[in-house]
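Quick start: read one record
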Amino acid sequence: MTLSITEDIRSITDLKRNTNSILEQIHKTKRPVVLTVNGKAEAVLLAAKEYEKIANAFNLLKLLIPAEEDIGNNRYKEASAFFKEFKREKTISG
């Protein structure tokens, strides 16, 4: 999701005057639009589906943090060792 400086940075006034065209742009390009007030970035406007994708990816990353910490602290087992122990404890043959 690369930002186009010439197309994706718009003022709040522009949003008020051209809401429909800006929404069409967001849906067509799948890029966010940065809204400015007095020349400074104030907010980001994003299509709902794109927001959901980003939110889902972020939530997945949050789930991976404890796993990365375990690896960093050497709290893991190789898969083959884990399954051998699991089968032995659960008396599963194979």
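The first helix runs from residue 12 to 17.
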